């Protein structure tokens, strides 16, 4: 499959089939914490970056096998709402596979666009982000396209929540000493209460970002922030909340590991959570791929991350 990936076991979505709607790395932001690295095509222009008819054909082919899925998820290595055909894919799945739930993982920057809000109105679960209310910090953390600002982003998310039929989980990514100050937390809480998401998910670094100065926020501090954000429905999300695994064997293990690593850096713990294989078997595959110069392992404070040799 060229545009589909997985199914992968997601910390939030269970067993999820990924649909990639933009090439690497087309995005409206170049976030310092992005596990996919710096954005190479920073833009706000919605276009047919990937042929939607080809995406739909792949979806038809894959779903003809009646796989067990918790979600079909629009995500990937860029911003999926940049594809102008997003609404067409949503409509196709809803019209032909009404039993499937759809999720959209988005940075939330483009929902000031009324036409985009209409396109995603039937998505069951939308997971946008909001990391800063102060524009100075928005620039520092998210490094947006020039025309974007935090005010229009918050307004767009507020309208989206009012108009959408499904559920919204809003993620906030915390960078120590930047957006966890009392002043910014107060602004974040006020903005989030205005948006009124169904859930607020607090996150911090657990994989390598695109800059080396970014560090994870202590878990105890995340707990303090969760308490401060009450009465909002808040949870701290972490990498170990995996629900389901996939049974794989032989050459399939190797291929799936390579595909997973090319999309994002992972640890052995991540791979064991996704694939139901013995740790020794995983070690053997990783050792082979290292010897073949296909992957390498980088040791960081947050763990040993497996990355592709590019």
Write the layout of secondary structure elements.
Layout: E1 4-10, E2 14-20, E3 26-27, E4 41-42, H1 52-63, E5 71-75, H2 86-96, E6 102-105, H3 114-119, E7 125-127, H4 135-142, H5 150-163, E8 167-173, H6 182-195, E9 199-203, H7 219-228, E10 234-236, H8 251-263, H9 268-274, H10 279-291, E11 295-300, E12 303-308
Parallel strand pairs: 2-5, 3-4, 5-6, 6-7, 7-8, 8-9, 9-10
Antiparallel strand pairs: 1-2, 11-12
Helix pairs in contact: 5-6
Brief rundown of the structure:
Helix content is 35%, strand content 18%.
Report what the structure shows.
The radius of gyration is 19 Å and the shape is globular. 35% of the residues lie in helices and 18% in strands. The strands form 3 sheets. It has an 8-stranded mixed β-sheet with strand order 1-2-5-6-7-8-9-10. The protein has a two-stranded parallel ribbon with strand order 3-4. With 310 residues, the chain is an alpha/beta fold. About 3% of the residues have low confidence. The two termini are 21 Å apart.
Number of helices: 10
- Describe the global form: globular
Order of helices and strands: EEEEHEHEHEHHEHEHEHHHEE
Mean pLDDT across every amino acid position:
88
Biggest beta sheet attributes: 8 strands, mixed
Structural class: alpha/beta
Give the helix level as a range of percent.
Answer: 25-40%
């Amino acid at each position: 499959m060229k545009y589909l990936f997985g199914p992968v076991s997601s910390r939030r979505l269970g067993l999820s089939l990924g649909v990639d709607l933009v090439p690497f790395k087309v995005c409206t932001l170049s976030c310092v914490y992005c596990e996919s690295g710096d954005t190479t095509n920073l833009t706000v222009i919605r276009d047919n970056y990937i042929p939607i008819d080809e995406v739909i054909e792949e979806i038809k082919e894959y779903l003809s096998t009646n796989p067990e899925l918790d979600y079909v998820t629009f995500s990937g290595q860029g911003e999926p709402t940049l594809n102008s055909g997003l609404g067409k894919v949503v409509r196709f799945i809803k019209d032909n596979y009404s039993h499937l739930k759809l999720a959209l993982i988005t940075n939330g920057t483009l929902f000031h666009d009324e036409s985009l809000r209409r396109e995603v109105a039937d998505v069951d679960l939308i997971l946008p982000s909001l990391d800063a209310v102060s524009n100075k910090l928005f620039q520092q953390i998210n490094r947006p396209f020039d025309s974007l600002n935090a005010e229009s982003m918050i307004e767009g998310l507020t309208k989206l929540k009012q108009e959408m039929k499904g559920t919204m989980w809003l993620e906030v990514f915390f960078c120590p000493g930047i957006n966890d100050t009392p002043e910014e937390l107060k602004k974040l809480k006020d903005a989030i209460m205005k948006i009124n998401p169904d859930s607020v998910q607090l996150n911090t670094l657990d994989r390598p970002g695109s800059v080396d100065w970014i560090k994870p926020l202590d878990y105890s501090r995340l707990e303090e922030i969760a308490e401060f954000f009450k009465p909002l429905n808040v949870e701290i999300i972490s990498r170990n909340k995996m629900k389901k695994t996939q049974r794989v064997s032989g050459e399939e293990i190797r291929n799936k590991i390579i595909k997973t690593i090319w999309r994002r850096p992972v640890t052995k713990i991540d791979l064991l959570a996704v694939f139901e294989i013995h740790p020794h078997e995983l070690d053997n595959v990783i050792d082979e791929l290292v010897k073949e110069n296909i992957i390498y392992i980088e040791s960081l404070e947050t763990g040993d991350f497996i990355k592709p040799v590019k």
